[in-house]
Design a protein that fits this description.
This protein has about 325 residues and is α/β, with parallel strands linked by helices. The protein has helices at about 10-20, 40-45, 55-70, 90-100, 115-125, 140-150, 170-180, 200-205, 210-225, 290-295, and strands at about 30, 80-85, 105-110, 130, 135, 155-160, 185-195, 235-245, 250-255, 260-265, 270, 275-285, 300-310, 315-320. Strands 2, 3, 4, 5, 6, 7, 13 and 14 form an eight-stranded mixed beta sheet that branches. Strands 1-12-9-8 form a four-stranded mixed beta sheet. Helix 2 runs antiparallel to helix 9 (about 210-225) and helix 6 (about 140-150) packs parallel to helix 7. The structure holds N,N-dimethyl-L-histidine (AVI). The site of N,N-dimethyl-L-histidine has 11 residues, from strand 12.
Length: about 325
């Protein structure tokens, strides 16, 4: 039962997802999208600065070094839509490379108004770039962009390996949804984190000063803040595991003791055993060769891959071909 006090649809959805996912057996879960409230978003920005987390710097290095070549492979100057604009830092290199050729219309799409605000602060001063923010979910936002365009090709940016936070099936489905909104001549630039040694990957998700732990534990604090829960985050420990078979890092919150938790907004109470975990996120890693195959399966043609060797990561350019 949902409390009347939860006013917005988003709050109702959060509450019912929390109840459903914490009830799952044998593995309790919480959806990773809920890690990103204002506190979680700020903590993720700190994660991207950690020496152990090379992913964002690799993404940035690759785009900075290859932006001219990437945009040079596009058939015509496009308008640009970015799914999950984040701070917009990496996008600067693409927009600057395009703005050397033509005036650029850029649509950052994000559910977070504060992310869109940060994006305008970062990119608003580039000459010949006009920014139109779209606040909303990725696919809804992209549909809005495609409705507004008038014949120009569209370049969609999906950077930072956010695709790795989807399960494999839903990732394919999501890429197909993007493809369904595009037409021949459009393109997708997709960032993918690659499989790497455990000695490099595990500290990235379990850093020694505990920023990733705080990012993960904040989800319990968020449930307390927004749903009146009584989680004691001190009675949980952050845990990062690598699942070789699934090629992914799995992030959990491990109960240190046997404890009962109450979440009044959803009229829910449950007991966790000592050692039992809540699975909060997966971060899938890719091998280079599987990416062109993923493009083919989802209706694209892979026309370029740029790889960072210091932190194995790939930028992939996919085109929509004429039938
Ligand atoms: C946003 N995403 C690509 C990050 C990742 O690496 O999967 C989220 C993250 N979780 C813990 N550290 C970073």
């Amino acid at each position: 039962m949902l409390s009347q006090a939860l006013e917005t649809q988003a709050a109702q959805e959060f509450a019912s997802d929390v109840r459903r996912d914490l009830s799952k057996t044998p593995q309790r879960e919480l959806h990773s999208k809920y890690l990103y409230d204002a506190v979680g978003t700020a903590l993720f920005e700190v994660i991207t600065l950690l020496p152990e987390y090379g992913l964002t710097r690799a993404d940035d290095r690759l785009i900075k070094a290859n932006a001219a070549e990437i945009v040079g492979r596009l058939p015509a100057p496009p308008i640009v839509a970015e799914l999950g604009s984040g701070s917009g830092r990496k996008t600067r290199w693409i927009l600057e490379a395009l703005a050397r050729r033509a005036y650029v219309l850029y649509y950052p799409i994000d559910v977070s108004a504060s992310a869109l605000h940060a994006c305008r602060n970062e990119l608003g001063t580039i000459d010949s770039v006009h920014i139109v923010e779209i606040e909303g979910a990725y696919i809804d936002g992209l549909a809005e962009v495609t409705k507004r365009r008038s014949g120009e090709p569209l370049l969609v940016l999906f950077l930072g390996s956010t695709i790795g936070n989807f399960e494999r099936g839903p990732a394919e489905q999501f890429l197909r949804q993007i493809r369904a909104l595009l037409v021949p001549g459009d393109a997708l630039l997709l960032g993918t984190d690659l499989v790497k040694p455990l000695s490099q990957i595990l500290p990235a998700y379990d850093d020694p000063i505990g920023v990733t732990a705080a990012f993960n534990l904040n989800l319990l604090a968020r449930i307390n803040r927004e749903l009146g829960g009584d989680f004691d985050p001190r009675r949980f420990r952050h845990q990062a595991r690598y699942n070789q078979l699934e090629q992914r890092v799995e992030i959990h919150l491990r109960s240190q003791v046997s404890q009962t938790v109450r979440i009044p907004a959803v009229d829910f109470e449950f007991t966790m055993r000592a050692g039992e975990t809540i699975w909060t996120e997966s971060s899938h890693k890719f091998v280079l060769d599987e990416i062109p195959e993923l493009a083919r399966k989802t209706g694209f043609l892979s026309v370029g891959q740029w790889v960072d060797t210091a932190w194995p990561f790939a930028e992939n350019l996919w085109l929509v071909e004429s039938p």
